[in-house]
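hi!! sorry for the late reply, been swamped w classes. u asked for the two structures so here they r. pasted raw, havent cleaned anything up. first the sequence of the first protein and right below it the tokens
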Amino acid sequence: MEVSRVFEQLVKIGFSSKRSGTLYIAEAVVYIYENNSSLVLEESVYQYLAQKYSKKKITIRSNMITCCRIVSENIGKRITTKFIIKYLLHYNSKKK
């Protein structure tokens, strides 16, 4: 699974390509997939992304949440970071 492919999928469903949170979500999906990691984002995913991008974990988390909030407002339905990650993991696992 490639980050660029997941990123494109996020953009197709309404995420902004200009927001760093979109990239972080794409990276999280690939990280969880490749490392068979749990969906407890606080334990490993935020830490991994914070180190990779030299940011604080709270910044990574906030940027991801902000992207989901904006999409939620645009579609009129609440989605969470965990929901979108689960969706993309499921969608991409079916495409093998």
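now the second protein. again sequence first, tokens right under
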Amino acid sequence: MKVKIKKDMGLGLFMLAVIFLCNPIIGFIDVLPDCIGFLLIFNGLRFVADMDEHLEAAKKRFLILFWAGVSQIVLQMLVYNFLQGAPGEETNPYGLPSTVLSVSFVWFVLYVAVLIPSFKELFLGLDRLCERFGYETVSCNRKGRSIQKSDGERMIKKTAAFVFVIALLGLLPELSILTSFEHYVGSSTFRFDWYEFIGMFRTLAVLFSLGFSVAWVISFLRYFGRLKKDKPWIERMKEHYRREVLPKTGMLAMRRFSAAFVILYVGIIFAIHLKMNFYACLPGVIFAFLVCAGVSSLGDLLPPQRNTYIAAGALALFSVAQIIANRIYLGQYLPDESLFNPNAFWYYLVVQLFEIGEAVFTVVLVAYLLQTLYEIVKAYTGIRYGGEESKSLSYSATQKLHNSFRVRMYVIFILFFISAVGNVADVVLHFHFGWLWLIPLCFSVLGVFFYQSLQHDLLDEIRYRYQSEEAYPKE
């Protein structure tokens, strides 16, 4: 395995991640998803984490935060779509605000309890690397005191304050729902409800958070900018990486394959066709995002996967458009109103077109994902026998192994193709044949089951390949 080391050891990804981490989560809506920032930091730690235990711990924590961020997107869909009830159904007016308060409190606790320690491990690890490879991190403070602090220690304090304030500002406006009550004096009723001003409270929270965000972003960028400018320090780290870490190629490859396959393992679940109250429970945009994340995390272990990214982008575009169009339609009309209302018909036709496009590009992305896996099969799996005249036997056994994976991939593609056809039929004929949704649901679940079985066996074969190369090294 040939590993290409980034010229900045991945430090540039941290500066890109800050874009997605500086915005507050107001009303449990994250405009720039934090999970993208966590994934960028996780990938940025790919090289340096192999040289320090603090950075390895930070890498594991940011992977946990990435999955928490993905679940946050799913929770947003649940909270703002399904908990409001079916269109036209009367619901408790305090149900949604109370739920938003609950999940906002959970996210406040998660950020304070997990995100702050994650950044602490990150900056401590970078300080350790600075000390080991000759970067001067210690400087006197402005008052000239004898106690000196490194850049990393100062960033730990700034980041902890930033995370706490931003998380708190995301929670405080939602507490106004607790002031909603009525009391009676004689025959008079008095209402006290600060939640009526929730828009103003959220706006003020955004404005206050902007000041903290700008200050933290400037400090964050200056810190990593100074690290990137020290070229001799980066070169010493790269030399150490080549000398001490790269010889363990099997361990590094398995670590990257395992992490990428976990992302793809979860991502394929979002290819299942499942609806509740006319809203998609598993939006295709998350499937597209996780496929891109899983494939990109493999990096130079694969040739460029341009078609996979194009298919994922098209799926994400149709999925987001369908979600928006569906919300607009259900916000103005009842689901079956398109059968007799001309205006509703044209709105619903747009929703149908986007949903058909999402179904088509879902199966296209599955096809490209399977093609990517087959490239992994050909490059990283095989059977080797020891002894003389074993070359032909090894080649024959390897071909049989590759063919068995190819057949399983064809089966998976056929299942998802039938699911896509059933999805299109359900979109067009839903009000006439209400049971059609069972076809895409059943076949997509089967496809996911077979895919995850295939991916598990593929990871075992990759592990076996590296073990066999150690047992029978190439002459």
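hope this helps!! also noticed smth abt the second:
Strands lie at 138-139, 149-150, 181-185, 188-192, 275-276, 279-280.
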